[in-house]
Amino acid sequence: MSKITVVGAGAVGATTADNIARKELADEVVLLDIKQGFAEGKALDMFQTAALLGWDTTLTGVTNDYSKTANSDVVVITSGLPRKPGMTREELIGVNAGIVKSVVDNILQYSPDAIFVIVSNPMDTMTYLALKASGLPKNRIIGMGGALDSARFKCYLSLAMNVSPNDLHATVIGGHGDTTMIPLKRLATWNGTPVANYLDGATLDKVAADTMVGGATLTGLLGTSAWYAPGAASAAVVESIIRDEKRVIPCSVFLEGEYGQSDICLGVPVVLGKTGWEKIIDYNLNEEEQALFSKSADAVRNMNNVLSTLSL
Ligand SMILES: NC(=O)c1ccc[n+]([C@@H]2O[C@H](COP(=O)([O-])OP(=O)(O)OC[C@H]3O[C@@H](n4cnc5c(N)ncnc54)[C@H](O)[C@@H]3O)[C@@H](O)[C@H]2O)c1
Ligand SMILES: O=C(O)C[C@H](O)C(=O)O
């Protein structure tokens, strides 16, 4: 029997729950929101697609009733403000830190053994906060960002190369921020061959730049931030954990010397399985990539330092 809770029934939370339910990753999916009736409505609407789409997962929507989340195996936290056009993710810290901290405290009362997937922004700092506030083993706190950013990298590569995104391997590491993420151009491949064989340097640089501002571009188009790809990426992370798939997905995890960094949560490739993130994979960055990773860490660390100025 497995149970997954998604906190926040807004655009990303509902899309995550929808993907999880359709894939039948759990016997029960609980969707929780603070807004009266909102999660109940989203869950009911979603369940009305079951007979049309051919899935059967118990979906429970609740308004702030954490007792219904009891004994969850995995909890996805999407509660909090999204950014508006012109904003950075970092500007959300003041409001979202308080929300994420209170959600983690509430969840732990009923699901002390849960694995947490943190989505709320600024995600790397919210992941660090969840780790410090919960005191849980590091392997049970996973920030979702790299899964989404890597999917965007593959999207822009597939458009530039006119190939299927499913034949591409491409990874984004570092922070989940407009200037902190690092699309690993050197390691991106199409059917095992370097994408640099097919794209000139300027085009590949543009693909990487578009990837980095992928979230901002969508926020500009939509008036709020994206949800289809974020929901699918969150569900992919949950799937590898709940099905013990051992997939390698870049996630924000607590580093203790890996990639030259400590006391920070930052995006690196990890193996995801039933105990959470199980192993960090060393991609042997070259000097230029390592310098970008260190710069990214500096920016995320500055954001983490803001946490101590907030009354949480
Ligand atoms: N990490 C990523 O890759 C990624 C991707 C997309 C969005 N995000 C972030 O995810 C968050 C949610 O985005 P969205 O588009 O779904 O926003 P949204 O406004 O559509 O939904 C947020 C929901 O959180 C709920 N909420 C607020 N406080 C709560 C609390 N204390 N307890 C329970 N629910 C609460 C709100 O009522 C709302 O329904 C944002 O912070 C956004 O920046 C992260
Ligand atoms: O762009 C945002 O603010 C939301 C999210 O982090 C994303 O990348 O889509």
Automatic annotation (TrEMBL):
EC number(s) on file: 1.1.1.37
Catalytic residues in the record: H176 (proton acceptor)
GO molecular function: L-malate dehydrogenase (NAD+) activity
InterPro entries: L-lactate/malate_DH (IPR001557), Lactate/malate_DH_C (IPR022383), Lactate/malate_DH_N (IPR001236), Lactate_DH/Glyco_Ohase_4_C (IPR015955), Malate_DH_type3 (IPR011275), NAD(P)-bd_dom_sf (IPR036291)
Substrates-to-products reaction catalysed: (S)-malate + NAD(+) = oxaloacetate + NADH + H(+)
Record-annotated Lactate/malate dehydrogenase C-terminal domain positions: 148-302
Keyword NAD attached: yes
Domain Lactate/malate dehydrogenase N-terminal: 3-143
Binding locations of substrate: R83, R89, N121, R152
Keywords: NAD, Oxidoreductase, Tricarboxylic acid cycle
Residues that coordinate or bind NAD(+): G8, A9, G10, A11, V12, G13, D33, N96, V119, S120, N121
NCBIfam families in the record: MalateDH_bact, PRK06223.1
PANTHER family (alphabetical): L-2-HYDROXYCARBOXYLATE DEHYDROGENASE (NAD(P)(+)) (PTHR43128), L-LACTATE DEHYDROGENASE (PTHR43128:SF16)
Known role: Catalyzes the reversible oxidation of malate to oxaloacetate.
Family of this protein: Belongs to the LDH/MDH superfamily. MDH type 3 family.
The name this protein goes by in its record: Malate dehydrogenase
Species name: Flectobacillus roseus
